[in-house]
Design a protein that fits this description.
Blueprint: E1 8-19, E2 23-24, E3 30-31, E4 39-42, H1 44-59, H2 75-85, H3 101-114, H4 116-121, E5 122-124, E6 133-135, E7 138-140, E8 143-148, E9 152-157, E10 173-190, H5 192-198, H6 202-214, E11 226-237, H7 246-250, E12 253-259, E13 262-265, E14 283-287, E15 296-299
Helix pairs in contact: 1-6, 2-3
């Protein structure tokens, strides 16, 4: 397939209601937060995991859409598949690829062709069975909530016990941490030059947009509550290098609080007298699409 030839910069908006979008294992699984601003955080790794799971469910049986970083995967086995397909042997003693550069390139190219997440996000595959290193064209930032979050700690009980000897004991107690409501945004970038190296195509891009739209639909759990992708605003450049700086395009997108027909920028004094946001309708996402730079257009997949 023909590799992507246009640069994209985009913003993804999603929200959570009564759930934990990304627990921090170093903090008792509390929702991740910026300690200075109390804004909620969701890591890029968390979002990529959901995208990988979506692609595995939607296209996992199709050629070229295997997932490299999957639960329980042994990476050396994944690399060995490329050597077997190309009828080569890895140099495990020196942890390097085939001695000839062209053979090493064949191994890395095979990994890109067959694993969707490698040609999308890239991968470091320099293990004992060395398959090279790939820098992916699609990169994501941490997502950050529009306003500070206030996680709740909820006590829960377990009505059953594990062992017969504990049958008469009191039932155990536990804790769950939830965010009552939070609207998050993450920024993303698609580098057309890197897409040319990995083979990331227009079809891959279409699948990526579908993944952003539906990844939460296939990731339901009691811990994550109601999560939904709300809007994705993409700036498409006519060229591979781009026609404007990403930060200037992102400044055209602003988040406002909404209440009884009024709106005010997040951080304005007026929302302090309004009820705490508890739904997506308590926000308004504004997009300034006037006088766009030459060669830049706006695309909203959903």
């Amino acid at each position: 397939m023909t590799a992507l030839t246009n640069r994209y910069d985009f913003i993804l908006f999603f929200d959570v209601e009564n759930g934990n979008p990304n627990g921090d294992p170093d903090a008792g699984n509390l929702p991740r937060m910026d300690p200075e601003t109390s804004q909620g955080l969701v890591t890029d790794v968390c979002l990529k995991r959901k995208l990988r799971n979506y692609v595995a469910a939607a296209k996992g049986d199709d050629a070229g859409h295997a997932i490299y970083m999957q639960d329980g995967a042994v990476l050396n086995r994944q690399h060995a598949l490329a050597y077997e397909a190309e009828e080569l042997k890895p140099n495990t003693a020196k942890k390097r690829q085939a001695d000839k550069k062209e053979d090493a390139a064949r191994i890395t190219d095979w990994m890109c062709r067959n694993f969707w997440d490698i040609r999308t996000f890239g991968a470091v595959m320099t293990t004992e069975v060395n398959a090279g290193q790939v820098r992916g064209p699609v990169q994501l930032t941490f997502a950050r909530s529009a306003e500070p979050i206030m996680p709740l700690e909820v006590s829960i009980t377990r009505s059953s016990v594990t062992n017969e000897k504990d049958a008469e004991k009191e039932r155990t107690m536990g804790r769950k941490h939830v965010v009552p409501y939070g609207l998050y945004s993450a920024h993303g970038f698609i580098n057309a030059n890197l897409a040319g190296r990995t083979g990331f195509s227009e079809d891959d891009l279409t699948l990526l947009w579908a993944g952003f739209r539906d990844m939460f639909e296939h990731d339901r759990s009691a811990a994550r509550g109601m999560m939904a992708a709300r809007r994705l605003i993409a700036f498409r450049h006519d060229s591979a290098l781009g026609n404007a700086q990403a930060h200037k395009l992102f400044e055209r997108v602003t988040i406002h609080r909404a209440h009884k027909g009024e709106t005010a920028p997040v951080g304005d004094d007026r929302p302090h007298n309004w009820p705490v946001a508890r739904a997506f309708t308590d926000y308004a996402i504004r997009l300034d699409d006037a006088d766009l730079p030459d060669g830049v257009s706006i695309f909203e997949p959903f």
